[in-house]
Amino acid sequence: MSKTIVALDFSSKEEVVDFLKQFDEPVYVKIGMELTYACGLEMVKTVKEMGHHIFLDLKLHDIPNTVKGGMKNLANLGVDIVNVHCAGGIAMMKAAIDGLNEGAKDGKRPMCIGVTQLTSTSKEAMNNELGIPGEVIDCVIKYAKNAKEAGLDGVVCSVHEAKAIHEACGEDFLTVTPGIRLASDSKDDQKRVATPAFAKEQGCDYIVVGRSITKSANPVETYKEIEATMSK
Ligand SMILES: O=c1ccn([C@@H]2O[C@H](COP(=O)(O)O)[C@@H](O)[C@H]2O)c(=O)[nH]1
């Protein structure tokens, strides 16, 4: 399976279908808030019918009972990955897994991963706005260990933390890393960024790439170049 997950940050079905029609092979895609709030979970069905793999990035973060109920209803959509915010705590993450297990009709639940610190968060913002002292890496490792204790399958983190997470939580614990930029790209709103080549070097399991591919003059070519780097 592809190591590059393409973020479908579009607001209409037409844009998604036109974008995906350019590819002659199944792509691993990410459906997040923008698309879901515009088109509903119906988009999961549309994209699945086109043959693609899906990371449903809704980042659940609520009291355990609510997250459990939410996950129960996401369990049978046929997506490969769902996620929560690790900041919701261990009880909430355990509830997410319980909900998925309860909801999965065939006994096979999607993988569930936890967002550690958003890749758009800098050390300064984490310290001064979120009120979490210290280095980002320490918070990310703590959250990753919590996620593992809760039974999650991995985490979302930046490339810069992936190696330390594998050391702390094991090589089988998934690291899914957004904040990917080509050397010539602008960082936009992202803070903890890295190139696909550095992600490969750091042992990231998957990279998540949005604008570098979707806004490229030739999205398929850019995707193929990035995926070739990741699959070397
Ligand atoms: O920490 C996180 C968690 C999720 N994302 C998501 O990944 C893509 C990145 O898009 P780019 O255009 O490549 O910046 C986007 O859908 C985010 O919601 C993240 O960036 N960081």
Automatic annotation (TrEMBL):
It comes from the Bacteria. The active site is at D57 (for ompdecase activity), K59 (for ompdecase activity), K59 (proton donor), D62 (for ompdecase activity). Pfam families: OMPdecase. GO terms for biological process: 'de novo' pyrimidine nucleobase biosynthetic process; 'de novo' UMP biosynthetic process. InterPro entries: Aldolase_TIM (IPR013785), OMPdecase (IPR014732), OMPdecase_AS (IPR018089), OMPdecase_bac (IPR047596), OMPdeCOase_dom (IPR001754), RibuloseP-bd_barrel (IPR011060). PROSITE patterns: OMPDECASE (PS00156). GO terms for molecular function: orotidine-5'-phosphate decarboxylase activity. Substrate binds at residues 9, 30, 57-66, 119, 181, 190, 210-211. Keywords: Decarboxylase, Lyase, Pyrimidine biosynthesis. Gene3D superfamilies: Aldolase class I (3.20.20.70). Residues 3-226 form the Orotidine 5'-phosphate decarboxylase domain. It catalyses: orotidine 5'-phosphate + H(+) = UMP + CO2. Its EC number is 4.1.1.23. GO terms for cellular component: cytosol. Pathway: Pyrimidine metabolism; UMP biosynthesis via de novo pathway; UMP from orotate: step 2/2. Catalyzes the decarboxylation of orotidine 5'-monophosphate (OMP) to uridine 5'-monophosphate (UMP). Belongs to the OMP decarboxylase family. Type 1 subfamily. Homodimer. This is Orotidine 5'-phosphate decarboxylase. The gene is pyrF.
